[in-house]
Amino acid sequence: MLHGLTFEVPRGSIVGLLGPSGCGKTTLIRSVVGVQIVKGGTVTVLGWPAGAPGLRTKVGYSTQTPAVYADLTVQENLRYFASVLGAPKGDVDRVISEVGLEDARRQVAASLSGGQLSRASLAIALLGTPEVIALDEPTVGLDPVLRQELWKLFYELAARGTTLLVSSHVMDEAAKCHRLLFIRDGYILADDTPQALRTRTGSEDLEEAFLRLISERQVTA
Amino acid sequence: MTTVLALPRPRHGAITLATARRILVQLRHDHRTVGLLIGVPTLLMILLRYVFDAPGAFDRIGPMLLGIFPFVVMFIVTSIGTLRERTSGTLERLMTTPLGKLDLLLGYALAFGVLALVQVAVVLTISMTWLGMNVPGPLWALVLVAVLTALLGMALGLFASAFARTEFQAVQFMPALVLPQTLLCGLFVPRDQMSTALQWISNVLPLSYVAEAMHQLTGNATPTATLYRDMIIIAACALLALVLGAATLRRRTD
């Protein structure tokens, strides 16, 4: 359940959705990609209502649990989604190298490690070069090196004009986003750049900033 | 800022074919399932032949089972398969893509139709050669009834999967939906010997028409009007179940 959320995501930026599990991050992401029943309010993506048929090749989505066919190889998974999306030839090879899964491309998804599996799922979201990519906890279970590589990829995508909506509950990732939405119990606590949040709360640490915002809210409530 | 989006070109044929191919590739990775799909009905047929051990009885029961096997197998495979799509998140992912519900349903129908054809071909070949099953009716009609029944099983499985949360539950739908139909379809007791109430129930169960169609084929060398009527009923039931199944696929969920 989300309450009175109003926010805009500028193009070509990485927006982080931060908050504890169960706070509504997944619901928010599902609303943006158009698979969530929205009871009230409007969600507009690239000027269209979320989930509009015209958006279906322009919005990439990766769920929290890797959504791939466990009994297909990485390559077969990607080929299928590429043909569903009508992605150009060569896109399968491109996304495999972008997420660094060249060595595992012929491996059946069920035999992949957790980190490989989430990268395979991420690769599907990159097919067809969507303008908006919504990633629900894309770096869970990845080692720091891989995480850093993925963030490098996210910056590259943003530099090319792709808008990324990335959810996470890890605060050290928050600092990497261009803009942050702190969410708690379905409310937005803050919507600002990491630097502005640090200045506003007077704390260098974003975790600390988050806690201060919570206590501020409790005082005013 | 509003972007002008080009209307997506309809490429549904391509998506349907890609989906069917994907399902067949999944099966190709799973040799054991394919082996069971083809091997189990064959084995049961052989067993049946020697249990009855009388040419007349096997000629009567054999073709009926030829219709029921693909029905049961397709029901199980589809209900588990689509339940997996729902629980693994691949369905949700597909729902954010240009894939239409019909692409998915027809993709399943196409892939499992091919599979049913292979299954029926193997079982039929063994039944008619080694086991000496004698069916006077035309072969094409026999195969058509069996494949339509397989598609019916597939469509019902798809529909049933919407009401199961786990694979345990999905498997339980098989006896719940399939066994009563098998008991009432005329396989064990001719339908006109059942009580009126049971006959009524039997009249609305699709498998009764499968049994009747197969019975027509074992009794007549040329297709009868009843056979054509039964084929239409089976196809209509499959279509209805497919539409009901489509209604359970939602782009948006809670």
Task: Provide the descriptors you would attach to this structure in a database record.
heterodimer, A: 221 residues, alpha/beta, Rossmann fold, 2 domains, 6-stranded mixed sheet, two-stranded antiparallel ribbon, B: 254 residues, mainly alpha, 76% helix, 0% strand, globular
Mean pLDDT of chain A: 90
In terms of DSSP E residues, the strand content of chain B is: under 5%
Order of helices and strands of chain B: HHHHHHHHHH
Overall body shape of chain A: globular
Can you walk me through this structure?
The complex is a heterodimer of chains A (221) and B (254). Chain A is of the alpha/beta class. Chain A has two domains: 1-58 and 131-221, P-loop containing nucleotide triphosphate hydrolases (Rossmann fold), CATH 3.40.50; 68-129, no CATH class. Helices cover 38% and strands 16% of the residues of chain A. Chain A is built from eight helices and eight strands. Chain A has a six-stranded mixed sheet, with helices on both faces. In chain A, strands 2-3 form a two-stranded antiparallel sheet. In chain A, strand 5 (132-136), helix 5 (144-159) and strand 6 (163-168) form a beta-alpha-beta unit. The model of chain A has no long low-confidence stretch (mean pLDDT 90). In chain B, helix 5 crosses helix 6 (139-161) and helix 6 (139-161) runs antiparallel to helix 9 (206-219). The longest helix of chain B has 34 residues, at 55-88. Chain B is globular. The model of chain B has no long low-confidence stretch (mean pLDDT 90).
